[in-house]
UniProtKB/TrEMBL annotation:
It comes from the Eukaryota. Belongs to the sulfotransferase 1 family. Gene3D superfamilies: P-loop containing nucleotide triphosphate hydrolases (3.40.50.300). This is Sulfotransferase domain-containing protein. InterPro entries: P-loop_NTPase, Sulfotransferase_dom. It comes from Anopheles stephensi (Indo-Pakistan malaria mosquito). PANTHER family: SULFOTRANSFERASE SULT (PTHR11783). Coiled coil: none annotated. One of its GO terms (molecular function) is sulfotransferase activity. It holds the Pfam family Sulfotransfer_1. Keywords: Transferase. Residues 68-308 form the Sulfotransferase domain. The lineage of its organism: Eukaryota, Metazoa, Ecdysozoa, Arthropoda, Hexapoda.
Length: 322
């Protein structure tokens, strides 16, 4: 068996799992990671949080075929993934705004590993297999769980990260809109204990940034996209070998503005969602920097900051979470 499965026995999880809707969570650790070109000395991959559905698809995950013309966007959840996907798809598709508006991002850019955590209308690995090339693929997988072929084929990949306090708040609202029934305080404490999907969070970010000889991966930050989107767009264009005029780039940045993205039904996952969202909840909520200051208590902020310090003894790693 290539994966090790462990039940979650943490009292906070056990006492709240039925009330919060998290009763089928499990920790999964990859046991065979010799192909991962990571520079962390004596690295041992952590166990990551999924649901019991992971068992059904582990073979499909490991044996997934990867092509040289694939384009991947990877992240920990709620790190600016959708925003990054739309930017990448348009840059790689000659700024075809008409096509982008005509077809849902979930179709243009399928989420390959969603079947590991949720029941989907179609097996997500099958959906990607049936997608016409060149394929655009979204993933939240940590480096230890990427398909075996990923490391030999090395498709172009954009990894985007985001401040942990912003992630915590966005992840809570996202989860509440789909299935979560707990309070934000319970969610934050669970997040810190690494019992939300794809956690541990810090390891996810650090390990992608510690890959060596992976010129196929471009690293972005949500905060940089908010502060200077044109500069990030130019960086992505260079990464994919694309060149556009200044008016074209201005049109792209306008298309990628929060106002435009929030109203774009092809991007906001509100067009044909197969999971009901709570009244008043929207997939894209605020699109602001540091809105966590208004939503988290001083105690929650302190807990999250202490958590980051505890998980980043390397000062250079700590800079990834500023």
């Amino acid at each position: 068996m290539s994966f090790e499965y462990t039940e979650i026995t943490d009292p906070l999880y056990v006492d709240n799992k039925e009330q919060t809707g998290e009763d089928d969570y499990i920790m999964v650790r990859a046991k065979e990671c010799g192909d991962v070109p990571i520079s962390i000395p004596n690295w041992q991959p952590a166990a990551h949080c999924y649901t019991t559905r992971f068992h059904r698809h582990e073979k499909e995950l490991l044996e997934m075929e990867v092509f040289p013309d694939d384009v991947w966007v990877a992240s920990y959840p709620k790190s600016g993934t959708t925003w990054c996907q739309e930017m990448v798809w348009l840059i790689c598709n000659d700024l075809n705004f008409e096509a982008a508006r005509a077809e849902s991002l979930r179709t243009r850019f399928p989420f390959v590993d969603v079947s590991l955590i949720h029941d989907a209308q179609m097996n997500s690995f099958e959906r990607v297999r049936n997608t016409a090339r060149p394929r655009f693929i979204k993933t939240h997988l940590p480096v230890s769980m990427l398909p075996k072929q990923y490391w030999t084929v090395k498709p172009k990949t954009v990894y985007v990260k985001r401040n942990p306090k912003s992630v915590a708040v966005s992840y809570y609202h996202h989860s509440r809109g789909i299935f979560y029934r707990g309070t934000i305080d319970t969610f934050v404490r669970s997040f810190i204990r690494e019992h939300q999907f794809y956690s541990p969070y810090h390891a996810h970010v650090i390990e992608y940034h510690e890959l060596r000889d992976c010129s196929n991966i471009l690293h972005l930050a949500y905060e940089d996209m908010k502060r200077d989107l044109p500069a990030v767009v130019r960086k992505v264009c260079q990464f994919f070998g694309k060149s556009y005029s200044e008016p074209q780039l201005a049109e792209l940045c306008e298309h990628l503005s929060f106002r435009s993205m929030r109203e774009n039904k092809a991007c906001n996952y509100e067009d044909q969602s197969n999971v009901p969202r709570e009244a008043g909840e929207r997939f894209m909520r605020k699109g602001e920097l540091a809105s966590w200051k208004q939503e988290l208590t001083s105690e929650q902020i302190k807990m999250l900051d202490q958590w980051t310090v505890a998980n980043t003894p390397n000062i250079e790693h700590r800079k990834l979470f500023e």
